[in-house]
Amino acid sequence: MRYERAATRQVLEALAWSPVVLVEGPRQAGKTVLVRDLVGAHRPAAYRTLDDAQTLAIAREDPQGFVLGQPDPVVLDEVQRLPEMFRAIKLSVDRDRRPGRFLLTGSANVLALPRLSDSLAGRMAIVNIWPLSQGEIDGAPDDFVATVFGEADLKWWPASQTRADLVARLTRGGFPPAVSIAAASTREGWLRHYATTVLERDVRDVSAVPDRVALPRVLRMLAARSGSVLNVSDFARFAGLPRTSLDRYLALFAVIFTLRLVPAWSGDVARRLVRAPKVLFVDSGLAAHLVGCDARRLLDDPDQLGPLLETFVGGELVRQVDRCAQRIELLHYRDASGAEVDWVLEDPRGRLVGIEVKATTAPTARDFRGLKAFAAQVGERFHRGILLHTGEHAVPMGERVWALPIEALWRLGEVGASGLGTGASR
Fold this sequence. Notes:
- Helices cover about 45% and strands about 15% of the residues.
- The protein has about 425 residues and is an alpha/beta fold.
- The protein folds into two domains: about 5-130, Rossmann fold (3-Layer(aba) Sandwich); about 135-425, no CATH class.
- The strands form four sheets. A six-stranded mixed beta sheet has the order 9-10-11-12-14-13, sandwiched between helices. A five-stranded parallel beta sheet has the order 2-3-4-1-5, with helices on one face.
């Protein structure tokens, strides 16, 4: 099944002004399908993939000759497999800077790999593509982040998703092949193979890891902590690893887009870099698979559901934040007294939206303590507080604070567009 991807517009816009456009994101997120669809419908170009052993061997033998011998324009797929090629692309672009000449894809974050990114600094636009969002799966607007930074009141009709529906979405995740598999047992097999590929191939493509035996165990342990603040020193001791090894593994998993380390909010931007980050797996289905939780177990065990539900929400926010027209930061909040807010969004004006996630159908005043503490801490910068829950109804819980169904993540814009979701400005 084909899905309309929000990144398509971003890629087309970038091709109109940049000589090199890189589409990067996790393996199996849909990069190759997106660029091949563009080649077929919008931007005719030659297509070469370094996943093909013969093509990779030829390119490795003479990277410069390979690049300079390509037709113009050209798509080069999975370019992280041959870092030496980037210097050859730079040479070609320096001779001819016409836009749209090279459309690249990669399953590694080029900006985190200096030997790749330095070659094309100032010459390359980057578009991230993630696993499918719920809006892309359903054909819904996915405008939650833009809407909550607006000025209008939030309104909502009763949610159509039950708790069981949400758990099914969570365990399915967003990788297009996994979404297309109806049987949960078959999907588990696909996710098992995917995790093996990540460890055996993607990590090896970007770095030589001496202790590869530890990688699967570390990945499972990190999945169990997705949505949690990570004390790296404590985790290293618990895992029986040197701190330097764990730092390296974390960096590798971030480079290949398996997880993201989300900084803590601080009024002092520099301090965000030294405070403990949160671990966030970019796909909740993969995280659930790695910790051994299927839908039935999550429905029966709220303690297991909570962290994975936070991962599910965090992943949806990553997808929306990444394609916002304005720069939005995804952060988390924790103060000295222990008050926490699961996710914090900050816009360029310094306005803040706090988002708390609860695996309950009936939130109480107690569930809003973190949001209220955050609002008191940041003062006028507090734009909104939202508690996302597994129930049906939207309830105002005080000035600029709302309880909304989790479904609002991909339907809030739709509600507003129908005339039911926006009221008078404050």
